[in-house]
Write the structure tokens for this entry.
Amino acid sequence: MMNEAFTCGDHGALVSYLYDECTPGERRAIAAHLVVCGACGEELIALGATREQLAMWIPPDAQLGFRITPETSKANVLRPARWWRQPMPAWAQAAAAVVIFATGMMMGAVRGVMQPADGGLRGPAVVRSNTTVASNTANTAAITRADLVALEQRLRSEMSQTRATSQNVVASPADARIFERVRVMIDDSEQRQRRELALRSAELVRDFDAQRNVDLARIERTLGQMDGTTGAEVAQQRQMLNYLMRVSQRGQ
Amino acid sequence: MTLTDDELVARSIGGDAESFNELIMRWERPIYALAYRVIGREEDARDVCQETFLRAFRALPGFKGEAKFSSWLYRIALNLCRDWIRRQRRAPVVQMPEGVELSELAAERGPVESIEELVGRRQLSAVVEEAMTLLPEEQRTAIILKEYHGMTFQEIADMQGCPLSTVKTRLYQGLTVLRRHLEKNGVALSRIEGVASSKVAGQMTPRLVKR
């Protein structure tokens, strides 16, 4: 606390008076001193003028506008789903099922054709494998083509129902354009998948035919070998008979 | 309805980021001005300003309301300025304007002041800015907090961690150095006075201007 009686040269008190942060009693005491002391009065005026000049100092304008953005908002950013995470269309699932089924059937048929030719040469492990394949084929064979056709029809009807529903929901021309574009993309994709399926099927049929031809050739070769063996044995028996007849004729 | 700082702080602590953004909008200009006047570089002052609010936001749960929110912000900003000055290990560099763009100045101010007045104001601002660089950091900070942010002696003492009497001494010594420097630039000041408005010239002490 400053003394009520001001002492000349008390800079702290002068600063308090300058910034008007003193008690009324202190203010009165300093004011009374300033009337009689020219040096203190002049200094106070000079300090006041300096303060006024300080008011002229204006910082340059700056683009501020800072904002706090919580980090959790990052989790709310919507990102497009990756293609492998998108759900597979029903028709694609059905097509995949048909391809797998057809492949299984063909493999089973190929194995069935090949088994008589070299079945005797196979070891135990291979035999167990064949047994598994045979059982799988038997299980798969339980699903008939009619079942698959029915499944496909059901999926298609569901898809058409979904399309009809989505068409009813369309609210704006922009949405309709988007739906139309998506529909075109789906149709294109479906056609592409169909072409690919047909191509794969043709390849499988071609491979199957080639394998069948190979197997038939092998069977024919095996049969020929058997024929050759039989002919040789007949000739040998014939020679034996001729020899016996010659020996018996010598004895007579 | 305008919410007080304390209400906005309470909402911010409760997780309302928008309330804190309101506080930023309210205080970013004073904090930037403080940083600019202490360190003297526009870009660094912006960085300090940004960092001040970032630190304040992170430390908000620990803010107990014992001091005013603005005082707390000023303290953070001053600490950052002090760190910046320590890193620089030299006196702050003042960006003195090489030339004055009259059109730019005319765009900044309203039509009340003439271009000559604006030029005079800008030049006087540069002279004051230069003079402030002569002061030790403690005196400069005390004067800035008092002159431009209206803090009381006690608030400055709390901010600077020193006795009240030390604050008064720093203010007196700082003002005296500034006064002498400005007197030495009396020629420049009288030139400014010639082009500045009567208001600006009237605020100057005749003794200073005419020397």
About this structure: The longest helix of chain B spans residues 17-39. Confidence is low (pLDDT under 50) at residues 92-111, 187-192, 194-211 of chain B.
